[in-house]
Each structure stands twice: as C-alpha cells, then as structure tokens.
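User: structure tokens for this one?
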Amino acid sequence: MSHKLDNLYDGLPIFVISTGTSLRGFDFSRLNGQITIGINRVIEHYHPSILHLIDVTAHKTHAKALSNYNGMIIAGKGAGPTSHTNVFEIKRNVDTFELSANMTALSRKVGRSFSDGLYGGGAGCTALHTAILLGGNPIYLLGYDYYQDNGTHFDEYDESRNGRSFYNVSYDISFDGVEHLSRQDWAPAIYNCNPKSRLTVFPFIDIETVLGRDCKKQSVGRG
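Assistant:
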C-alpha cells in the first residue's frame, strides 16, 4: 500500500543533515532553497524543510525550537510534538535492528513505501531511508561522521571526551543500517560530503562542488 509521502520529491536533490562534528562552523543558511532533512538537534540551529525525530523525548528536549518551526516533521511513533500541525508519524521496524522473541537474525527487508515502515536503528539510518522514500535523487549526507572529535556533535566542544571509545552499540547499529541501505539495488545516487567519515560505502563529493556547481535552487516551503 502506498503512502501520501512516497516520492514527494521524486528526482530532486535532498540534503540529509546529521549532527557530526564535521559540521562545526558550517553555515546552514547556504542550504536555503534546497530540500533538507534535519536530524534532532539540528532544529536548534537551522529550520530544515523536514525535521526527522525518532527519540520519543526529542519533542520535549527541543520544545522551544519546535515552537518556532512550521515545516514538516517525519517522526517515529511518539516522537513528534502533538501540538504541531504537520507531523507524519511513521512506524519503525524494530526487527531490523533489535532481536526479539525467538529471532536468531535481524530482518534485512527494506520497505519501499512509508507504509512499510522505516528501516534500521538510529536517526541517521531512518533519516536516510526517509530521503530515499521521498524520492530524493541524488541524496547528499552531511555530518555522517561516526567518529569523535572533541565531542560527538557539531554544537559541542568537549576536549575531555577525547580518547574515549566512540564505537558504542547505538552508533554501530546506525552504521550497519546505513551500510545495508547502500546495498539496495533500487536506491538512488547517494554521496557523503565528509571525506574523513568512517562511512565509506558512498562516494565522496565536496559540498562546495555540490552547492557551487551541481545544485539548482529548489523552491521549497521553509519554516
């Protein structure tokens, strides 16, 4: 069964903005006019075309920023603010990242419609699946680092965290899910804009090249 969001932006570039430290100092306003999906705390610094939330506490953590946002929210069950008028709640397929009951292996089925639910664990994975289902082509990943650099997020700087293990279970689950999405033969062109990313399954493209030469400004509604 199809969903009203399926291929909403068919054939248009989509930028997916995660929260990695490689985005420190990045001027998000340079993405104005593009179709953007921002993950979690991005809303504190920029109003993307679409905000993606899967943490059920996110709408409380970012309540003030959300109160000034009027774009689209695509959220996991219970993660979107109830007061927002443009929220699409999409089920997550827990069996794609968490064993339960008598399961001995994770499901690897990636749905081709929002009606099928979102694949994988971690917002980085589900946000990429969201961009794919929206019909984005190409898709550009920003802040998909999977490493630590004086903290784990672009809006923090904490030297005391250097040297600590970053390869925890939650990031490994997200990393594995994104890699699995890359292996779908029906997926569109996807590029990673961070040359230092641990995620090497997608070809690198420089963001300066993308914004300066490859992308035409898209007319999209913005909050």
